[in-house]
Amino acid sequence: MAAWTDISGIKQRIEASSAEEITASYLETIGKSRINGFTTVWDKALEVARGIDKDGNSGPLAGVPIAIKENISTTGLSTTCSSKILEGYVPPYDAHVIEKLKAAGAVILGKTNMDEFAMGTSTESSCYGPTLNPWDIGRVPGGSSGGSAAVVAAGEAPLSLGSDTGGSVRCPAAFCGVVGLKPTYGAVSRYGLISYANSLEQIGPMATTVADIAILMDVIGGYDHRDSTSINRENTYIDSLKEDVKGLKIGVPDEYFGEGIDEGVKKAVWDAIGKYEDMGASWKKVSMPHTKYALASYYIIAMSEASSNLARFDGTRYGLRVEGENWHIMASKTRALGFGEEVKRRILLGTYALSAGYHDKYYLKALKVRTLVKQDFERALADVDVLMAPTMPTPAFKIGEKIDDPLSLYLADVNTVPVNLAGVPSISVPCGFANGLPVGLQIIGKPFDENTILQAAYSFEQNTDHHTKRPWEVA
Amino acid sequence: MVYDNPDGVRIGLEVHVQLNKLNTKLFCGCSTDYHDDEPNTHVCPVCLGLPGSLPVINEKAVDFAMKIGLALNCEIVGQTQFHRKNYYYPDLPKGFQTTQYDYPIASRGKVIIEGEDGERVIGVTRAHMEEDPGRLQHIGSIEKSKGTFINYNRSGMTLIEIVSDPDMRSPKEARRYLDKLRSILDYLDVFNGDLEGAMRVDANVSVFGGDRVEVKNISSFKGAERALLYEIMRQKNHIRRGGKIVLETRHFDEARGVTISMRTKEEEHDYRYFPEPDLVPMRVADKVPDILKTLPELPDAKRERFNSQYGIADMHARALTIQIKVANFYEEVAAEVDPKDAAVWVADILKGELNYRDTDVDAFKVDDIVEIISLVKQDKITEQSGVQIIRTILDEGGKPQDIVVSKGLLKVEDDIVAKAVEEAITESPEAVADYLAGKEKSLNFIVGKVMQKTKGRADAREAREKVLAMINK
Fold first, then answer.
1. Which of B57, B273, B274 comes nearest A228 by C-beta?
2. pTM (two decimals)
């Protein structure tokens, strides 16, 4: 079985057969995979599914399989951030979202590939090798949650969790033609998510339909006392599954259609906006003047935080250890061997940006720019309900095309990072194709107003057939 | 007397206080009661810094910190702010310490001490909260140990670092400041100073207005005094030989009583401080009035009250108010007997005996000291016997009444003394003659005989008076 099935479809099939059978069929598909999306398949998946058949779990995800990004802690299941430095690390605890999923009856299939420590846009920097795009195995699936997007697109899992620090859910969702949500900062607990840049990132759901995203958000969202940045506020995401955009005010920021944008992408996105107009929404151009500084601000903040977050990987307590004649030599040898190129580059740059004499010039300035970018969103979203723009300026690029040119890779994040700086929610939904490759429409909302963007995305999906197209792996 | 500080000594102290009376650690729910337990048994993903774990501030720790800040007459910050102090060390599981940087919880306070020449105000620059790292341990000596072991039980314990202004002019003043600080913390009931590592001291010291030197690894108050004495002497000698004191950090070698250079300014770490993104600021300014209400009467106020309420000597009031336990003990005793007698017996006698035995006032019962004082005041036993009863209780236990009986301490009846005096005079005609001839010392011989006859139970002063009265009759 290699098909796209949504949660309701899976539930029907469980009724007809069993959760065990469903899980088994996904495991079989994974076994034949050619895309290297999974890093580890959980050897207890079938056992869990059998347990659900036996106990008659009534949770919203009872028996529904899901794939988890390699940086979300899972008890007894290797969690390495696709880095050699965490080789062999098996967390003794579950992330908050994993506890929630287990309680809801979800069956974890395994862990998915990613750019090392979520630092990338292509899933090429993984110590497990690159994940391939199911639409064209010569191309990247996007990143950093490339594995999570690719396995959903390839029918190897109906749902997955990724994490989005600067676009890491939305980018691969766009490149792989699936739906991906970056929730408002604080909407989903980060407890158990291995930090890359903690002030920017959120765990986000990925699926083939908007409805599944809403169902998944109802499971993983909400307050957690173990994450001080999580916000205590009630929301029912499935309430948003209404087909109605009449009167919806859409803002279209010019700055998101800037230099280097692919013509096919541009057309697909404008066609989508046109579709909204046809369905009764209105649009106008909005200005977000600080967008051009967002990328620099984002990278300085992310790298600064990363340089500190990744300091704990010293070979002392877990993961890789390369022995040395004293502790400091052991730690530096471990880090020299354990971290890949891109991770080292970001640790070095981040350390530099925080150093005495440079701190004000880089880190502090980046924080000030962040405030300005945030104000851009506040201003724009005061006038309109949502913003729409291309998720990525181009469709998926070729494997190896940009890996040796970090700057051009960073530039690919131009439309996604401002959202993380501002902390607002944003969803990427399939809106067409450019040169046969999927294009993602990004819908950005006000803080904690996920329901408006979900409703907009749902309405679009119900009135178009982009999401019904299948990649070669599935077709 | 004015102390003119001939060497231009300036000392500032940084004191780390572990708030071990909190039930849980600063950022997680792990128990703080680890002191007798196996290594690495009071740990969780948070205090082990496991990937993905996040800190959550312990609100009670913030309350304790505010209490300390207010007791030190500090201003309290509007909202809490934590920073990361980045450096690598095996006892630091996250590769950074979560601490407070430019917004300490408390700042600009003061502590009053008994200085070289009377009362002296020592400024408190700041008091900030931070987490304790783990501890490196060795089996046997470092050299012989087969490896370094890391115990993370201590990791994440709440520390308050109290930084003073460089206002102390001698090691003695530094010692007095530390004693006073300990006394205040003791009153606040925020820590148990007897536990290992509960208070740790770093000292900054300069002479003749020169650069300051930081002395680390001081493990006791006595050690602080010794380290400072040595360091001041070293700096003076170095300057006398034409040397120049440079900014540096030195390590105190307790065993040898010397300081050794660790690093100079050029080698100082760049800690790359930045705000901790995982903790949100917590507004605390509004809590100040409530916290103020929880502050107990502090040592200075208590001392003044003791002076006026009990009319006791200031020296006694000071001694009685250093430890809150002693102050409470005294007040219970003063309610039963003359407060002035109580002051002498508790401050001078009992405290002396307790110090000698390295124990504290918990080892003695209020009722017992009240009974002893009463027996002395009723003239039933001598003061000397009272002291003897205290010693017996401390060393062997027992009740005052029983000890009086078993040791035969009741003062003997007057007629027995009178009889002994009569006999002694009759038996010592030469001594009597010598005394009458002007040899004062001969009297001692006769009094000695009286004491011998009463087996020492007579009061020597009384016996002397009786002998004199009889001879002069």
1. B57
2. 0.90
